[in-house]
Amino acid sequence: VKINSVEFIKSSDGIKDCPMDGFPEVAFVGRSNVGKSSLVNLLMERKSLALVSKKPGKTQLINHFLVNKRWYLVDLPGYGFASAPKTLCVKWNEFTKDYFLKRKTLVMVVQLIDSSIPVQQIDIDCATWLKQHNIPSTLAFTKCDRKKKKRKTGGKHPVDNVVEFLQEMRLVTTQTYPWILTSCVTGQGRDELMMHIEEFRNY
Ligand code: GDP
C-alpha cells in the first residue's frame, strides 16, 4: 500500500475539537515506550512524524494526520506511565474513553503491545475494555525482533509473551480478534497491518 501523502492536520484536546470533515479514522494507542512512533513511521514510510508528547504531565492531545487525503491516522496519548500520578491515569481514561465511545468516524483501533516485556495487566485491561464496548480493534505486537534476554530473570522470547497475552485474553473474552506481529527493525508486519487498515477504511 503506497503512502502518497501524510499531512498533520491538528491536535485536539477533546472530541469536540476534532476535525469534522468525516474521513474515516484509525486510532493508535498503547503504553508509553511501546514503539508507537517507530511503528507509525514504518507504516507511513516516513522518518519522523511528530507524535503526541510522550512525557506524562503534559497536555494530553489527540493528533490527526490525513493519509493519502482519504483517512485519518489518529495518535492518542500513551497510557501506563510508571511514574504517572493516579490523577493522570484517571484523566487518560476519561479523555480517551470519551473519544472511543463518541467519535462517530472511528472505524478501528490499533492497540500496540510490547512483545519484548512480560504481559502487562494494563494492556489486558485496555484490550478487554475495547472488546466489551464492541470497538473494532487489532492488536499490533511490537519489537518482535528482540531476542530473549537470558540473563534477565523471567526474560522470554517475544513470541512467548504474545502467546501468553492471547491466552489471557481468551479467558476474559469469547470474541476473536485480529493480531499482527510487527518489527520496525525488520519491517515485519508492515504490509499486513496496512492492508488490514485499508480494508477497514471503507466501512
Ligand atoms: P513510543 O514512546 O511508543 O512512541 O516508542 P518509540 O517508537 O519511541 O520506541 C521506544 C523504544 O523502543 C525506542 O528505543 C525504539 O528504538 C525501540 N523500538 C521501537 N520499535 C522497535 C522494534 O520494532 N524493535 C526493536 N528492537 N526496538 C524497537
Secondary structure elements and pairings:
Elements: E1 6-12, E2 25-30, H1 36-44, E3 62-67, E4 71-75, H2 86-102, E5 106-114, H3 121-132, E6 137-142, H4 158-172, E7 179-181, H5 190-201
Parallel strand pairs: 2-4, 2-5, 5-6, 6-7
Antiparallel strand pairs: 1-3, 3-4
The protein binds guanosine-5'-diphosphate.
Structural overview:
The chain is globular, with a radius of gyration of 16 Å. The chain has 5 helices and 7 strands. With 203 residues, it is of the alpha/beta class. Strands 1-3-4-2-5-6-7 form a 7-stranded mixed sheet, sandwiched between helices. The site of guanosine-5'-diphosphate has 16 residues, from α1.
Helix content: 25-40%
In CATH, the topology is named Rossmann fold
* Structure summary, number of beta strands: 7
Q: What CATH architecture would you give?
A: 3-Layer(aba) Sandwich
Could you describe the largest sheet, including whether it forms a barrel? Answer: 7 strands, mixed
Nearest-angstrom radius of gyration? 16 Å
Q: How many helices in DSSP terms?
A: 5
Mean pLDDT: 86
Structural class: alpha/beta
Q: Indicate how many domains the architecture comprises.
A: 1
Give the strand content.
Answer: 15-25%
**What shape does the CA trace take?**
globular
Distance between the termini: 18 Å
Enumerate the spans where pLDDT stays under 50 for 5 or more consecutive residues: none
Main β-sheet, spatial strand arrangement: 1-3-4-2-5-6-7
- Please, what is the CATH homologous superfamily? P-loop containing nucleotide triphosphate hydrolases
